[in-house]
Amino acid sequence: MFRSSLTLPSQAHRRRLPHPAFTTLTASPLVSDPHPHPPHASLPFKSHNQTRPLIPLPNSADQTHIQTQPPHCFPTYGYLVHRFRDSRTSNDAESFHLRIFKHGYTEDLFLCNTLINVYVKIGALVCARKLLDEMPHKNSVTWACLISGYARSGLPDEACAHFKRMVSDGFVSSPYAFGSVLRACQESGPGKLKFGMQIHGLLSKTGLDFDFSIPNVLMSMYGRCLGSVDDAYRAFCEIEFRNPASWNSIISVYCQRGDAVSAYRLFSSMQKDGLDFGLQPNEYTFGSLIKAACSLADSGLNLLQQVLSFINKTGFLQDLYVGSALVSGFARAGLINYARKIFEQMGEWNVVSMNGLMVGLVRQKRGEEATEVFMEMKDLVGINVDSLVVLLSSFAEFCVLEEGKRKGSQVHAYVIATGLIHSKVAIGNGLINMYAKCGAINDACSVFRHMVEKDSISWNSLISGLDQNECFEDAIMNFCEMRRSELTPSIFTLISALSSGASLEWIKLGQQIHCEALKLGLDLDVSVSNALLVLYSNTGYLNESRNVFFLMQEYDQVSWNSIVGALASSEISVLEAVEYFLDMQRSGWKLNRVTFMSILSAVSSLSLHEFGQQIHAVALKYNVAKDCAIENALIACYGKCGVIHDCEKIFSRMSERRDEVSWNSMISGYIHNDLLPKAMDLVWFMMQRGHKLDLFTFATVLSACASVATLERGMEVHACAIRACLESDVVVGSALVDMYAKCGRIDYASRFFELMPVRNVYSWNSLISGYARNGDGQKALRLFTQMKQQDQLPDHVTFVGILSACSHAGLLDEGFQHFNSMSKVHGLAPRMEHYSCMVDLLGRAGKLNVIEDFIKKMPMKPTVLVWRTVLGACCRANGRNIELGRIAGEMLLELEPQNAVNYVLLANMYASGGKWDDVAKARMTMKNAAVKKEAGCSWVTMKDGVHVFVAGDKLHPEKDLIYEKLKELNKKMRDAGYVPETKFALYDLELENKEELLSYHSEKLAVAYVLTRQSQLPIRIMKNLRVCGDCHSAFKYISKIVGRQIVLRDSNRFHHFADGKCSCGDYW
C-alpha cells in the first residue's frame, strides 16, 4: 500500500549523513565557494506575516561539518548566525540573503537552512521553496523546515507533496518532518487518511515510530479522520512507555469524536497506570474531560460536577486553562451560578474565561448580565475579536431590544473608529446578527453591503436574518446572489432559504433548493430534511413530505412533529397523522407541546372524543396539561367533538392562565355547538373583565351571527369593533360585509364595503356572494368587473359567487363565459362546486336535456353535491325529465343513504309530476332506512326573544291571535286576487285539504305573528328549508296589503318582498 507512492532510497543512492546531524535537525555550515553563485536578488520579500519559530536551530558548534575547514573561524560567519537566526521580518530575510551572497556562503548548508527557516517564519513560502530548489546541497533539516512551514501555514497538500518529493530524492526523514506531514494529513481530514496510513507504514520501516512524539501525532491524525478512532487507539496501544501527553492525546481523540464514555474509561485507566508509573492528569487532561462532559445531554451535568470535585482535590481549579474550561462548561450547561462562582475563585483570568462566562449568559438570554461582565473585565484581561462578537450577540438577548440595538450601535461606532470592522470578518458577521435579531434588518443589510470581505457566515447571517424578519423575498434573492458568487451554501443557508420558500409557498423554488441540497450531499442532514418537511407541508405536497420523511437516515423530535403536523393539517390525511403519532410513541420519542397541539388538531378534525380523552391523559402523564397552549388545544378539540361541558371545565380551571386564544377557543366551541347566546354572553363577560377582543374573536363571532342571520347581535358586535378601533382592519371589515350580506342587509354590506380603506380578495368575495344571495346578479357582475379593474385577482370562491349570481338571475350565456374564463384567462381549474353551479344554472334555465351531457363531460366523477343539484332541478321542472331525476336519486341514495334530504327531494320530484305511487315508495324507502327528515320551521327574532314555528303549529302561547290574523290575511289576499297554488301541496289530497295545508305553512304563521304587533319595521323571517312557491306568491300579496317590507331567508337565498314584488323576480 505504501510502496506505490513513498519508497525508501536504496543503499546505492542514499545520501550519507553523519549520525549527529539526523537527530538534531541541523546542518553543518559550508565554507564559501571561491566562485559564488549569483545572489537571489529576484526573490520577493513582501510578506509581513509574523509567526513563532517553526524549528529550533541550535548553535553552529553543534553542527556536523561537511567542509574540511571550520567556517566559524571567520568572524563574519558567527555574526550572520547570531544576527539572523531569530529574525521575523521580511527586511531581515532580504538582508540575510544578500549577505550570504556577498560573503560567498551560497553553498553553506547551515546558513541556507537558517535562511529557509526565516522565510518560513515570515510566511514567504514561495521564496523558501525557490531557495530549496536552487540549493546544491540539502539534508533532512532542509526538507523538514519547508514541510513544517507548509503544514503550519494551512497548506496541507503542499506539505504532503514536498514530503513525497523528499522521500523520492532519497532523503531519510526526521521525526520532525514526519510529525509535520502527519499534522498536515490531520488538517486535511478523511481525504488524507490513506496517505497518513502510508506514512505510518514508512515510520514502522524506519523504526522512528517509537519516538516519543510520533505516536501522539499519529493518534491525533487518526482521530481527526472520520471513522479512524480504532486506528488511533491501536497507535496508542503500541506505545511501550506512555507519558501524560500520550494519554491526553488519546483522550482528546475520543472527546473530539463525541465519545465521552470511552474518554472517561481511558481516564480511569490512566489513573490506574498512574499508581505504578507516577502518572498524574494535568490541565490538558481536565480540559478534554470537561469538553466530554459537556457533550453528554442527560448525564453531562452530573459528570461535570464530579469533575469539578476532582479538580478541587488536585488543586487545578486555580489553573487558568482548567478554570476557563470549567467556566465555559458550566455556563453552556445553563448553570450560570456555578460558572460565576468558579470564575470568581480563579486566581487569574484571561479573555477565554471571560468569553466563556459571557457565552453562557447569552445562551440563558441574560444579555444585560453578559454586558456587565464585559464592562467589568475588559480592562483586566484585554479583549479580542471573539470578545466583541460575544458582546454583540448579548445585545440581541436584552429584555428591551431597542436598548440592545442602541448599545450595539455604540459598539458598531467603536469598531469603525478603531478600524477593527475591516480587520476581521467575524466582527461584521456579529454586527449583522445583532441588528437582525434586534429587528433592525435594514441596518444589518447596510453592514453587509459595506463589508470589504465576506465569507459564507456573512451570507448565512444575512439570509437567516431576513427570513427571521419576514423579508422572505429578500432572503431568496440573497440566496441566489450567494450562489452566483460561487460560495458553497452550508446547512444553515439551505435551512433559511427553505424556510423563506415555505413561507412564500414557492414550491418550484423550494424544489430547486432541494436539488441543490442533493448535489451538495446535505439533503440527508436532519435539519435540512426538517426544513424540507415544512416546505412541502406548507405548500400542500404531502406525498413529497412522506418521501422526505421516509428517506431520512435519522430523525429527531422536530422531524416527527413536522410530519404529524403536516398530515394533521390536511383533512384527507388526518387518520395518517394519528398513525404517525402512535409510531412516534412506539419508537420511544418524548412528546412535547408541539406534538400534543398537532395531534389534538387531528383529533378535532375527526371528532374522536374518546381518543381526545386519551391524548388528554397522556398530556397529564407528561405534566404538560397545564400548559396554556395545550389547554387551548384541548378546549378546541372538545368543542369540535361536541363535549362542551369538558371545554367549560378546562376553561374554568385556567383562571389567570387564560389568553386571547383561550377565550376565542371557548367562543368557537359555543358557536360550533349552536350555542350562540352563550358565545355572545362570553364575549360580553370577556369585555367586562378588561380583555381586548382581537381580530379572531370579532371574525368568529361575526361569522356565527352571519350563519344564523342574527342581525341585531351582529350589529352589537359591529359596535364593539368600532370601540376597539378595529373596524378599519381588513379581516374585521370583510367579516362585517359578510355578516350584513348574510343577514339580508345588502345595503349595509355595500355601504361598509365602500368605506373600507383596504380590501382583500375576501372582502370582494363577501360582497359578490352577498349580491348573488340577495337576488341582484347584475350588481354582482358589475362588482366583479370593478374587482378586475382594481387588479385584485379572483380566486375559486369568487367564481362560486359569480356563477351563483348568474344562476339566480337566469344569465345562462354570461355564466358559461365566466366558467370558461376560469381556466383560459385566470388559470384556475374549475372544482366540483363550480360544476355544481353550472348544473344549477342549466336546471333553472330549464335546460334539463343539456345537464346529462354536461355531467358526462366533467373531468371528475360527480359527487353528492352535483347529483343533489340535478335532483333539485328536476323537482322544479314539474314532472319533466323524471328519468334524469330518478338516476340522480339513485346515485344520491347510493352515496349518502343516511341523508334525509335525498329522500325528500326524490319524493318531491315524483309529487310534482303526480307520481303518487313513486312518492309512496320513496317515503317507504326512507322509513326502512330509519332516516328522519328535518322538520321545516321558521323563526323570527323579537324583543322578547326568538319565536319558532312549524307547519300547523298549535303550541305557541298566542296561537289564537296568530290564526285570527292569518284568517284575516287570507281573506284580504283572496280579495286581491290570490289563488293558492295547490301543486306545492306535495300530498295526494283533495283540493280543499291542499289549500288548508298550504295556508298553515310555518313562514305564514311567522308573518302573521309579527303582524299581531304594532310596528312599521321590516319583517325578517328565517326558514330552514326552501320556501315553497305558494308561500312565495302569498308573501308578495301580504307585502302590498300591509305596506311593509318582508325579508325572507330560506336555505338557498334571500327574498326581499315589497309592494307586491320580490327581489328574485320570481326566478329562484
Automatic annotation (TrEMBL):
InterPro entries: DYW_dom (IPR032867), E2_motif (IPR046849), E_motif (IPR046848), PPR_At4g14850-like_plant (IPR046960), PPR_rpt (IPR002885), TPR-like_helical_dom_sf (IPR011990). One of its GO terms (biological process) is RNA modification. This is DYW domain-containing protein. Residues 977-1068 form the DYW domain. Residues 25-54 are annotated as: Disordered. GO terms for molecular function: RNA binding; zinc ion binding. Keywords: Repeat. Gene3D superfamilies: Tetratricopeptide repeat domain. It comes from Rubus argutus (Southern blackberry). PPR repeats lie at residues 139-173, 243-277, 319-353, 455-489, 556-591, 659-693, 760-794. Belongs to the PPR family. PCMP-H subfamily.
